[in-house]
Every structure is written in structure tokens, then in C-alpha cells.
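Sample log: Dipeptide epimerase.
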Amino acid sequence: MCRPTAPRRGYDYRALIMKLSYQLVEQSWPLAKEFRISRGAKTQANVLLLALSDGEHVAWGESVPYARYGETLTSVSQQIERIMPLLSSQTSGEQLNQMMPAGAARNLVDCALWDLRAKKANASVATLLGLTPASTVITAQTLSIDTKERMAAEARTIGNAQLIKIKLDEHDIIEKMEQIHLAAPQSQFIIDANEAWSFETLIQVLPALAKLNVALIEQPLPSNNDTDLATLSSPIPICADESCHVSADLAKLKGKYQAINIKLDKAGGLTEAVKLMQAATEQGFIIMTGCMVGTSLAMAPAYLLSGASSFVDLDGPLLIAKDRDNGFTFADGQMQPHSSAFWGGENNQTNVELARLFTS
């Protein structure tokens, strides 16, 4: 169960502006266990929830402010508070992109507005955008950094998973992957270094990793120090994560990366994520759809990109102790869609949790 935090003083969460009322809520979702990457560890997912109403329809979205990009719950909330007086239910995604920079704040507003548009039009967001999401997808299941013994044991518990994402720092890379591969020999692996490796480390480990069912390596080098990738002929595709936020980034990635990881909190919403996906596909990049650690509400808009994605990494709800009601379901890595009333559906039903925000 999430623990909503108290609203900060001075914020009017029920402000009525241009026929849009809204509530902005901080929530803390305990994780099933500690989640550790090369930059640190967390035991809970701190998210922002935005609920909108035009007086007839109620819509919502979720975003995850990320410290790596200089974001906090406070800074993102302040961005949203500043923009809300300028918005209406008629604000388009492209207009929003001109009004706000990419990031978690714009993502939150954009996704809530898309949900509102779907309810007003009685048509799904997928239909409005001309997207065809997969009916079910294989999502990566993530192992956070630990000892090689514990990581192998964790891999063994999800041994039927077709795709496992491995968080690694610069220590014991091959030793850990050998043990994980033994524990789940039929699985494919995505390695995510979160900028923790040097170019020399990457060159050293590539030959061994290529023999261990590693299908993709995410952001091995720091985003501000990745020029050496242009000289690399890698047997494993290299995927840009921290180096890729919006479609304008693609020009600098060409020749260095073969894949990109699209995350809505980086792109600043579904509108820009679709633009990025289409441009990257045209330019020959492999598409991966990823996420921050959040609930099914944060995954729902990203799921719409699944039909065009070679890799899907939307296991955020699996990392949380208890997800929102009516969200995605998972079985052996198979991700089943959420209910149409949850987010972005083609009917005007309102999710019970969402309705409560405007009736409590």
C-alpha cells in the first residue's frame, strides 16, 4: 500500500483554472526489496500523481522524478504548479512540448492530458495516436546489484524468464554474468551499467559477454564521455539510455549506439516518446521501451510503444511490494494489459482510486 505524503504548505491542489481542476499528490510505494544500481540503492518508489477533471471527465498520470537529471519531488511539483494556470483541456501535446522542457514534470502533465482526451473522445489513446500496442509482451525482469551468489539465486527464481535485465557496476562483471547464466541458461540478458564502466572495461568484457546470451548492453559509459563508442565494433548492440532523452538527441547518437531506451520521464511525455520512436525507427535504431521504478500507472502510457519495440522493460510494478489495483498482471515475464478503465481506455469509466481523489 502506498503512503501519500502531506501536501506542502502554500499549494492549492484543487485550484480551478480554465475549467481544469487538478490534484497533485506525492506518493511513496515500498519496494518488495532493496533495489540497487551503480549509483545507489532505494527501498521505496517516490512518485507524483496528477489527477485532472474538466467537470465531466476525470483523468490521471504518474511520473518519477529522477535525481540523475537534477529532479526532485519538489522541483517537479513546482514546475507543474507554474504551468497549470496556462493549460486547458484543449492543450495539445505539441503545445505542451513548447511550453515545458523534457522531464518528469512534462511527462506527468502530458500523460494525464492524454487520458483526459481519450475519455472526452470515447476513444483509446492508442487509437488517437494511431498506435498498435502488443496484446501481451515479454518484459525484462530486473536483478539489482548484489553478490554473484545472490544474483544467481535470484536469477534461478525467475529461471523461466525469457528476458532478464542485470544491473552491474564495474566490479566482477564476468564472474557475475557467468553465475547468472548458469542459473538461467535459457534466458536472454540485458546488462545495464548505468554509466559505470570505462571504455577499457567495455572492450575487455565484450568477448566473454557475447558468449553468455547477452542481447543488449545499456549505457556502459558516462553520457558525457561516450565518444569512444564511435570506434567500437561490438558483437552486442550498445543501447543509449542516459544519452538519449528526446528525438533531437538522435543525431549525436548515430555511429555510437545501435539502440535507444525510450523512457517517458526522460522524453517528457508520450507525445515526445512517440516522435522519438518514429524518428529512431526511421534511422535504423533498435527500440527499447523502459521505465523508472513506478506503478502500473506510469507503465500504461509507455506500454503503447510496445508494438514497435524489440525490447520491453516495464517491470516497475514487479519491483513494488503492492501495485495499484487494476494494473498490469505478470506471469513468467509475460505482461498482460491493464483494464480499459485504468488509463487511456476507450470508455468513460473512472477508476475507483482516481474518482476518490475528487470526492474525498
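Observation: The two ends are 18 Å apart (CA to CA).
Observation: The domain at 3-121+348-357 is CATH 3.30.390.10 (Enolase-like; domain 1).
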